[in-house]
Design a protein that fits this description.
Blueprint (H helix, E strand, L loop, with lengths): L5 H21 L8 H4 L1 H12 L2 H14 L4 H19 L19 E2 L2 E2 H26 L11 H21 L11 H20 L16 H19 L12 H22 L6 H25 L5 H20 L13
Antiparallel strand pairs: 1-2
Helix pairs in contact: 1-4, 1-6, 4-5, 4-6, 4-7, 5-6, 5-7, 5-8, 6-9, 6-11, 9-10, 9-11, 11-12
Length: 342
């Protein structure tokens, strides 16, 4: 199997190293740049943890999809797998008490020691924003190499080792944290088995799942609007179901069904309207729509003091998106493989 040329391979991996933690961690304020103001070692430690987890997970999923000739359906399924690994098995947020980042979802939807509504929302969030969207952006920027591997056999083994080492280290680091209770053996086994089942399902999903089925080229505006819905759906899952005092607005089961159905409808609409070919501008419009709500969220955190330096993240994201927009809009075929400067 022919690999991506070395120069472009390096560029694509660098882009993944920026966007995979950049979108879900730094644009949400979950990991902040603020330690740069008072503790650079803390910032470096957080950065290394993120770099050992997010890009490695995305790279492994990309390699799986290419080596087994799978499509976005398999990538999304493995993204769910990644979310369970990070939040359930590694960071233990599935089992946390009602403190940040879980908040009221440490009580609402909690059953047998598991925060099911939080687990559902954060797993879908990681599948979309930690895995699918970064890989989607890379495929837009480098369409010629979107179906060629970035890693050889040794590379896969090395990346897998780094990923699993990070999972274990984070697991150990939160083990004695009072508000992050250790999962029971049964919970560990359940979520481990679930990750293995999802890997098998991803292997079975046909390659053309979630691929564009639109008969004619469509305007790009509708894809921007569809993308704009995705992050607010996650916020709905995290904020609306219960008030701060724990009073349920709707039942957890109903909320979960609404969340799942809403996400499915968005995916179906995207698949239905997306042209199967000559769709680069449509894909960029969708990606831009998915990222845009993060800008408003980031500025809300900036002005409320939730994250003092988050606007710097927004500036970097805007610069990268502008470069990608120019690349997509260019009519010169020789510019299609340019790097997105980070």
């Amino acid at each position: 199997m022919r690999m991506v040329p070395k120069g472009f391979r390096r560029k694509m991996i660098i882009v993944l190293m920026i966007v995979t933690p950049g979108i879900p961690e730094y644009m949400t304020g979950s990991t902040m740049l603020d330690p740069l103001l008072y503790s650079i070692p803390v910032f470096i430690a957080n950065l290394l943890i993120d770099l050992a987890l997010y890009p490695t997970g995305a790279l492994l999923i990309r390699e799986f999809s290419i080596r087994f000739n799978k499509g976005w359906g398999s990538i999304l399924t493995l993204g769910l797998d990644y979310g369970i690994m990070e939040e359930g098995i590694s960071a233990h947020t599935f089992f946390m008490s009602p403190v940040p980042p879980v908040g009221i979802l440490g009580e609402y939807g909690r059953f047998m020691g598991v925060n099911w509504i939080w687990a559902l929302g954060i797993t879908v969030f990681h599948a979309i924003f930690s895995i699918c969207l970064p890989l989607f952006l890379v495929s837009i920027a480098y369409p010629k190499y979107s179906r060629e591997p970035l890693l050889g056999r040794r590379g896969v083994k090395f990346v897998l080792f780094i990923y699993l080492l990070d999972v274990v280290m984070v697991n150990l680091s939160v083990m004695n944290t009072p508000y992050r209770p250790m999962p029971t053996l049964a919970e560990y086994l359940f979520f481990t088995a679930l990750t293995l089942i999802l890997i098998y399902i991803a292997y079975l999903i046909p390659a053309n799942s979630l691929s564009g089925k639109g008969d004619l080229p469509q305007g790009t505006g509708r894809f921007f609007l569809l993308g704009m819905i995705v992050f607010p759906l996650y916020l709905f899952n995290a904020v609306f179901p219960a008030s701060p005092n724990g009073v349920e607005r709707i039942s957890p089961v109903l909320e979960a069904l609404i969340f799942i159905m809403a996400n499915l409808l968005v995916m179906i609409a995207i698949t239905h309207y997306m042209p199967p070919s000559e769709n680069r501008k449509h894909k960029f419009s969708l990606a831009l729509g998915m990222i845009t709500p993060f800008f408003f969220w980031a500025e809300f955190l900036q002005f409320t003091g939730g994250s003092l330096l988050i606007t710097l993240v927004v500036i970097v994201a805007l610069v990268m998106l502008n470069r990608l927009r120019k690349l997509v809009n260019s009519e010169d075929e020789t510019t299609e493989q340019q790097q997105i400067p980070g």
